[in-house]
Structures are given as structure tokens and as C-alpha cells.
């Protein structure tokens, strides 16, 4: 079917610096080149984590829990809860070999990180507290590892710290794209 949309009738949006989360000159993410593989991977991951925080800055509990569009259960609060669980799973459980329940997950609802994200200030505070705790553990683990070649067995296959860091960069990058759209829908703020 041919597109019959008149381009002159399609609204376009222009963005001003005020619409952005942060002016590029004030961006807290690193602008300097990283030296070495570990610094590069942990630096890019740190920047992705900072991006999540920037995208959520200044929102109240209701806004953090606001769902995108039906039927999706995705929200910024759900993303924070989900990424806390992902940090926990990869760094604590897989790499460090610790036992324990993944945060924000229930045996009867694998999507509890999203399904349980409610517009309550205490729920938002808990999500950020757990996320920061898991990020701190992951940062210490990566800094203290003897090398990027530190390898564990996961699902019957060798898995290195390097692979986990690359996976985490990808995980955050994908979800930060979701966060861009969620935030724009909430208040019109956009990323660069």
C-alpha cells in the first residue's frame, strides 16, 4: 500500500537545549579517552549507568512508575529495578558465586521488577538503594579482579569478566534507549 501521508501535514518536533536532560557542556559522563581495556570497559559501563540516573532525574514516584503504552509494563522505575537485578545476577551470582535471591523477582512472576513497580516514594527509594548497592559491588568486583580474563563456568561454558562487562554495556544501552522514550512521554525531555 502506498504511503498517502502528506509530509506537509505531518507534525515535526524541534528540540531546544531546554528539552534535553543535560546540556552537553554539563554532561557528567566521561569525555576523556580511557586508557587500557579495563578502564575502557568499566568507563563505558559507568557512563551507561550515569545515563540511567540522568534520565530519571527530577521525577516523582508517580512519574517513575508511569507505564509506557499498553500492553507494555515498562516504566523507568521498572528499569531501575530490572537493572539492579541484572547487576546482582551477573556480578554477585555468576562471577562471585554468591547465593541469594535476585532482587525484585518472584518465583511466580519473572517480570516482578516491572509488574511490581508502583508509584510510591518508598518503592522508588528502595529501587535506587538496591541498584546503587549492586552497582557498588560490581564496580569493586571489576576493580579487584586479577585480570579481564577472570573466567567462571556459566551454563556449562567459560565466561570471562570481559564478556560480562561487554554484555552489561549492551544491556544498559538497550534499556537507556527505552528510558529515552519513557522520559520523553512523561515530560518531553529528550537525550542527545
TrEMBL record:
**What InterPro entries does this protein's entry cite?**
DinB/YfiT-like, MST-like
- Gene3D superfamilies in alphabetical order: dinb family like domain
Q: Where is this region: Disordered?
A: 1-35
Q: Which Pfam families match?
A: MST
Basic and acidic residues composition bias: residue spans: 20-35
What this protein is called in its record is DinB family protein
Query: What organism is this sequence from?
Result: Streptomyces hazeniae
Upper lineage is: Bacteria, Bacillati, Actinomycetota, Actinomycetes, Kitasatosporales
